[in-house]
Write a structure and sequence with these properties.
Elements lengths: L1 E2 L3 E13 L2 E10 L13 H5 L14 E8 L5 E15 L19 E13 L4 H16 L6 H10 L2 E2 L7 E3 L7 E3 L13 H9 L1 H12 L3 E6 L2 H14 L8 E3 L16 E6 L3 H4 L5 E5 L4 E3 L11 H15 L20 H19 L7 E5 L5 E4 L1 H8 L5 H7 L2 H10 L3 E2 L3 H16 L3 H19 L31 H21 L8 E2 L9 H10 L1 H15 L3 H14 L3 H16 L4 E2 L1 H17 L7 H10 L3 E5 L2 E4 L13 H20 L20 H11 L4 H11 L5 H30 L17 E5 L25 H20 L3 H29 L21 E10 L20 E8 L2 E8 L9 E6 L3 E8 L12 E7 L3 E7 L5 H15 L17 H12 L3 H7 L22 E4 L35 E4 L18 H4 L3 H8 L16 E4 L15 E4 L4 H6 L12 E5 L6 E5 L20 H23 L44 H11 L36 E5 L1 H4 L10 E5 L5 H15 L12 H8 L1 H22 L2 E5 L6 H13 L6 H14 L4 H4 ...
Parallel strand pairs: 10-12, 10-13, 11-12, 19-20, 35-38, 36-37, 36-38
Antiparallel strand pairs: 1-7, 2-3, 2-6, 4-5, 5-6, 8-9, 13-14, 15-16, 17-18, 20-21, 22-27, 23-24, 23-29, 24-25, 25-26, 27-28, 28-29, 30-31, 32-33, 34-35, 39-42, 40-41, 42-43, 44-45, 46-47, 46-52, 47-48, 48-49, 50-51, 51-52
Amino acid sequence: MTRLADYFVVVGYDHDKERSGSGSGKIIHRFPEKDWDDVPFHQGLELFCQPGGWDLSSQRTQPSFFVSVLTDIEADRHYCACLTFHETVSMTPKKPDDVETEEEGGLVHHTLMFAPKSIALISRLDYFETFRNCLGIIYTVYIESMNVQLESIIGNLLGSVHIPPPGGPQVRFSVGAGDRQSLQPPLNGAIPVSRNTVAMLFQQLGIHNVLCLFCAALTDNKILFHSSSYSRLTDASTALLAILFPLKYSYVYIPVLPNALMEVLSTPTPFIMGVHSSNKSEIQELLDVVVADLDSGYLSIPEHLNLPMLPDHIYNRAHQELTLVLSPDLQNADCAFPPPTPSPSLQPMLDKEIRAIFMRLFAELFMGYRSCLTIIRIHPEPVITFHKGLFLFERGLSGDDFLQKVLGGMSFQTFVQERGPPFRICDMFDEISANIQETLLQEGRKAERIIKNVQDIARHLFINENPNPQPYSQKIPKPCDGAFTRIHIPTFPRIDCVRVQEVIDDGVKKASMKAQLQTIRQPKSQFVPYGPPAGNITAQRNIINNNARRLEVLRTCVNSIFENKILDARKTFPAVLRSLKSRVVRNALTRELSTHAHQNRAMLESQQFDLIVRLMNCALQEDACSEEHAVATALLPLTASFCRKLCTGVIQFAYTCVQDHPVWASMQFWQATFYSDVEKNIRALYLPPDELKADKPDLNEAFTASPDVVRRTQGLLYDKSALEIAAEQIRIWPAQSEEERNEMISNEESTVFSQAIHYANRMVYMRVPLDISKGIKNVFSHEGESGSSNISQSIGGSDSLDGESGFEEGDSSDPAGSVIRFISKFVDKVCSEGGVTAEHQKSLHQMIPGVVAMHIETLEAVNKESKRLPPIKKPKILKPALLPGEELVLAGLRGYLLPDGREEGTGGNLGGPQLLPAEGAVFLTTYRVVFKGTPCDIQACEQVVIRSFPITALTKEKKVSISNTPHIEQYLSEAVQLRACTFQLMRIAFDEEVNQEKIEHFRKTVNRYRYPPSVFSMFAFNGVTTTNTMLQTHKQKDKTATLRKFASRTFLRGSSRKPGLKNKQMSRKGQKYVLPGEPLAVPRRATLPKPPLQDLTDSRPNSLYEEDDITTVDESEIEIQTSTLKASDTLSADKLMDRPYVQDYQRLGLGSPGSTRQKSTEPFRISEVNLHYNVCRSYPALVVVPSTVADESIRKSLGKCHRQSRFPAITWRHPRTKALLLRCSGFHGKGVMGMMKSQVVQNTSTGTSTETTRSIEQEKYFQSIVANTPVGSHHNTDSLVSLNSVLTPTSEATGSPPQGSESPRKVGGGSSAIYRAMTGIRGSGGKGMNSFRGGQQPEGGQDAKDGAVMPTSAHKAALYVFGEKSQMKAIKTENFPKCDFIPCDFNEVRHVKASFKKLMRACVSSAPLTDPEVSFHKLVEDTEWLLQIQNIMQLAGAAVDLMDIQGSSVMISMEDGSDFTSQVVALTQVLLDPYYRTIDGFRVLVEKEWLAFGHKFTHRCNHTAAHQGSGFAPIFLQFLDAVHQVVNQFPLSFEFNQYFLKFIAYHYCSARFRNFFFDSECERFEYGTLFEDSRTKSGKIGERGDGTSKGIQIKSLWDYIDSIHLKTPLFYNFLYAPSIRDCVLRPYSDIANLRIWDYYINEDLRTGSTYDREVVTKATEPNEENEEGPLLPTDRRIINGCYDNIQEAQLDMFRWLLEEMSHLETDLCHFPMKWKFVWEKLESPMELQSTRTTAASEMVKQHGTSLHKKTTIEILTKGKEGSKSQTQPHHFETHSYVTPTYCDYCQHLLWGLVKQGYKGMKCSECGYNCHDKCQNLVPKQCGKVKISRESSFRQSQTSMEDVIRVTPQSTPMISGGQTTPTYYDHSWQSAQVSETRTHEGYLWKRGALLKGWKQRWFVLDSTKHQLRYYESKEDTHCKGFIDLSEIESLQLSAVALPGAPKKAEEKAFFDLKTIRRVYNFLADSKDHADEWINKIQECL
């Protein structure tokens, strides 16, 4: 019997402690005054009586009631039922001190206030309704002044009312106020009583929200309810606990949290709490709490919180069942003739039905849990553990995050402790759990059966709460309505404490006497039903039957090994290794080995031992990812059984060879295995002897799924399980005598102790390494990265996956101590749980060090003798064929070439021989990294596998961990992975004979040869002797790679002058310069005149136009080096006449060199202004300029208007339209073009006059270009700005384009946007977009809104300038008549780098793709590589149309003018000029546009160590890919084939030839490679210094191509039709027409590389062993796509006929003719047909032309409108919304929760959000505004282009035919320019002096190349900055640094090392740290 209430308390307002308007409460009465012995009184009760605070009220409020929950120190819950009412209080207002006191006798005004008072009951029982009635009676007696003593009521309540335990009878009582009450205890106290709270919770939140709360509570997340009702908070918390049954919530539980304790919400432990809605603003700052609003039904889950949800099948079943119960009419809602709708259950029964569903959910979730219980002690109390890994595996839920967290939580541990014992009191959950599998099968998802079963369980739950069906009429006195509003209400009376105590004592005495007379029937213990097993035994046996063939092969191989038939065993050994990937086969292997071990066949020969150990290692490695560790458990005793004899007295056991696996370092494995063996021994202890035979395994059942399942299955079928034996022992325990009990306890304790000793020895065997001097071996996780070298700082990420090593950290210098500590920790754990006595534990601890020492001594002899074993015979190392001049650097290191993500060479699904893995050796030469070997597969071992790549192509080298690989007989734990930009990947695992020192030496040597100190150390300059001055000059350039270093060495020597004094040298005119703060290049030869200092700037690759900090430099302080070249080496125009680009100028009719040689009629001339590279060091010496432009104008003014002085130069001229193609760099931001208005007036007139002069000169230059552009005056031309040009061919006349004036044409509404844009383009001949001046309306024109009519005359621009958006937006076009400036997007170098890295990972993956949703094409799409190719082709196509159709000149003015500009200009010429589609012409094009015009090949290809950190940028490769796309679409128009492009793509980064070295023509001249063909072989540059006759090393790629082309048509395209080559090419550029270049995905394992022809010839030439040659027509040979070069092995008919003719001529003793001569003599059969055209072909041609012109117009439209064109749609993707979001179209709510929420549609480009149904209705125009939703880093400013685009002033408005250009504020733009923000956010920075951590706002500026930091986000002045050019390294910190903030993550630290100091940073998380590192690396 238990008291109904333990304490009664009266709490009132404390007037004495009132402070500044906020009061407090105090306890007025408490009864009894003395604490009960079993229940202490709770302190701080007054806080819970008024959770909102004790405040006076000015209004009367009705009484309130709610229940709070208190938790004592024993974690027992007490319920505080509180009824609060208000009493009248008279308050006298206080006067301020400065107010005079009134006269005596004056009136004093009082204010009536209402003070709260609470009466409360504290109880251990949860009868809330009874508490409400009792407190209501007390309040009624007080308020109605009833003739009843309150003392009697309180005393009776505390002393006389006692409640029987659960299962007891109904109690009827009265507290003495004329009341009648009844109370019914539940039948089972373990099942919670919920009343109707669960149904109310679902009504408030809904099904999905409650399920999310349910999952959050089970996974130990913080949950917070808030509501305006305290009762609702308690009910919701009670309901959540009720649906958690049978689990018990073990964390903080406070349903009603007082306001004074709000800080408790910051506790790190999980909790369930409730707060009043008035505190909603305070809980918004909680970042890790799931918040449920009970009033609005809204559930808030933090964005960064990954809430695990139920497994899908369980969630779907629960959701369906809840829907059937809560909405029974839903399933018939769509029926045409619906059946009678079942009425929903009443609220109490509905509550129980919901709870029944959750009980079924738990039964399904924990189905079979009893089969995974392990009992380790039965007496005196059962001790049971749970095998978590086995349960997850058997259920097939090993990867389920939700179940992982549930099984690891405290609630489930309590569940196992309470429900684990097999003999105990059972409840309804045990019955449901035992029958759930059968129940679900019978239901079959039929609603009627589901409802019936749910209602049956609900009925039992209802009966449990209401066991007495007889109604009882209660009588509860209540106050009159409105009693609390009475004016005169007396105060609550004082209560006589003595009288109350007397009543309590009397009631307690009577209750005790009554309890002695009354006996209550206690429930009896019973056997707990076992239930279904965790796994499906039938399904597992079916799996076994499906693997019968594999199991038979395994048994045959194992038998052959033990019968010493080694040759027979090796035949099937590779197949057995492959089959070990199956878990069934691994378990079968353990059974087979156990069988042979029991047959006394454990002593093996050496070869037998090696094979058995190999099988063990393979099985352990494949089973490492499983949490059940079944294979390791089964192999553990076998490792100490199998052995071999090394010599007399020395035996080596198998455990010395299988120690490297992480499972042996897992404490979880050792504990689970120990408990399993203890259970077996405990079972054997109580099993009768005649039944022990059932434990022997049946050999016919050897191939079962799991040893644990085998054991449990045998227990079910043949004998009792351990749990059943334990249940019987627990049942008979009370009947045992004391001696028998003690004996049982002693036997069990001895069993556990003996097993602990046994396992301590086993752990010594497995943990002590064979070679103790090397320490405990490092245990690597599978597929994890163990180390890498920082060859190329990653942008796209790493190939490897992060993983945990799984071993305990210890002191590597003391292996024995680490092993002792590990074993001692294990012993303490298992002995404490197993009840081992303290004496036994102490003796075991004392034994461990001695056992370890003895074992170490034993292993010393074993280690010594094992090294004397004869080595296994290995295949001979095959040496690779070398090129002329190529030498070996490192001899072959034996190893294995492992397979990667490419499946072609591994057999498998694609078929073919298994070429990989291959066994051989890796070689490092001065040119390549080569692997050569033979396949490990015995059926393919006769072939030779070669994989190689140039050493300079290496982009990433790192160490990776590997898993088991078939055919390799060694256990390999790690490998070296080499990735090259030639799309090659090597994963090399070294042989055991290659020690760690050799591996590290190999890695370091590779890095050294990859990044030599100078280009002269590379293979292309092999055998060249260079002077020391040359090398010093090159090193000097690297040392002065930054402005700060250069200035400190040269310019700033006089910076320490006294202020106010002027240096004499500085006073000279023309000696003072202003330099941008960028890296400088030092002049290298004194033979060149001193260039102006501003020409020395070497801009960064990604620099924009903003000027950096200025530095005053004295020219006289520059040190010029002395001359090192001969006099004959000085540069002159005559020497340059033979250069290919100069000859091309003359071919195009662009003049002749020099001003004196040109004719007066020539409009152009080849200028020598840059002959000595004075104007621009990256330009060629001779450039084409208009004849009217003087050299002095270029030198003084024009060159300074562009970055790096790359002024506009003419590169090509259209032969028909005479349009010009020009190239230059971007304009300077504060140049002379007036792009931005300067806000600061120059103090001197010199600056203004100079600026004006430059502006005039630039305008004159543009006028000269316009004047030399006919713009269609001498030819018939079509106009791009005319809309009729994009119509289909049927609407235009075929053949000649339209002539003369166009007639007015109406334009439909669908083209109005194009018309408005074109209006601006047509008017570009005047002032920008102002088409019609003076307000005049165009002739025949109308408003564009309603059927606009095209103007009759349209003025076309003579010059179109394509430039960056940031420059083109604000150009003052009135100064440049007939010029139009088109802003356009371009591929920045950092984007190209990131895309290329992703492309390499997609095309050459390091591991096979396992995710079915991630395919190869999806990975390629994610790289955006084809989008960048498309961008190049579209812009080149626009230039083609403008020059060919319209006759306008085009200028490309992008970035620094050497990357994207070169791509577009070169591709444009390929499309326009057929000459460049020949082999010779393409060479000229590359020499002109890439080499002469200064593409930075050395910088972009990272040739030297100085460029190592910049990353490989495949700019030239992108151009070749674009040409490949054109060749693919026009195969008849090119003389060269695809192999020609691949050949150049390979060798431009191979460093075999000298063509693609250095960054400009100037550098090539200075280093002597520009004219090396004409140099004499005198030992200087160009001469082979070794004088050997190994063969001539060709220095030029073009010479090498010519020599090959002369002998064989390897590069020739036999489909080439020169007769039709005069057409202009207009390729399709949409993604659907672009192809992935097979250069990226094909390989040749036979020769290694098909691009080094000497190697191919040596590898394929016939010999005695291999007589294979080219295929004859009658030959048949199997060709493998990845092994053979199909082009070489299977010749096309043209090549075969040419070779056959050569053979026939040789046989006839005739001198064979060259193939080219023979081919040219042939008559082309298509020569006559080529002139014929059909209507269909002409229509197709014109249709393609129209589409091409449409793309051009879109580019122009996009540039003029400043936003994306109308054809750019949204790119919608499915998105899960975790915060309230509104649809941007219909404005309705659109939001969801992490996994199960509503998935809307989100545009990945502009961030547009909409419903799925609204997707087709949204506006088609995409704004292309990236929206980033990062939790910690918020973009604080919008980029300048976006702001300009969205402001109305930036878009030209057309009204009445007049367009007025509107300019934005230039001062605002200038400010924005100086504050360019690439990335920003808060970081913690460590101080340099005091080492303190401070949080700063960091801004990464890619324009200024700075990392600035501010005090806060709002601060406008930076506190300092880091120059990115000074960064030497950037990486994550290895350890957390001291003094950091408390909640900092260990992996969120990263270090930034500069030339001055090391900066330490701390981000919010590791992801944010990685993001910062990637962003900074992108800017380097």
